[in-house]
Amino acid sequence: MGITRQKNAIEQVFEDSPQHLTAEEVFFKVRETTPNISLATIYRHLNTMADRGELTRLTFPDGKCRFDKCTNLWTGHAYCQRCRQVFDLDPASLKMEPQVSADPHFQISGCEVILKGLCSNCQAQGEEPLET
């Protein structure tokens, strides 16, 4: 299978999914249509796509790397410390003008915010966070 076909299969997974996917999740979804693809190939493509700015690579408190099709320079996510779901923050809530106190002329090229807490489903079940 050619590189373009493999990459197209990965891109299709992100088009079909609103989720922030791990490489393993992408692997299982791609294998539904491309059974001969390897996990190493998935990792290689995902990392290349992230390095090129086609995906955003995100690392959350559970240590898992996830990939997001949103590549805005100002991104934010909420992470449930119980069920480990990831939610996008409203981009309007990230409109701020931060300043770096040590260098007031520092030119900011982007920002990633991760809020930790409990999603509404875990709250409704009376759950406590698994991690801090």
CATH architecture of the largest domain: Orthogonal Bundle
| Helical content class | 25-40%
Helix/strand order, N-terminal first: HEHHEEEEEH
Number of helices: 4
Under CATH at level 1, the class of the largest domain stands as: Mainly Alpha
Taking the sheet with the most strands, its summary is:
3 strands, antiparallel
CATH homologous superfamily (4th level) name of the largest domain: Winged helix-like DNA-binding domain superfamily/Winged helix DNA-binding domain
Average pLDDT number: 85
Could you say what the CATH topology of the largest domain is called? Arc Repressor Mutant, subunit A
Number of strands: 6
Widest sheet: strand order?
1-3-2
Query: Shape, please?
Result: globular
Extract low-pLDDT stretches.
none
Strand proportion: 15-25%
Overall structural domain count: 2
- Terminal CA distance reads 43 Å
Which structural category fits the helices and strands?
alpha+beta
Radius of gyration: 17 Å
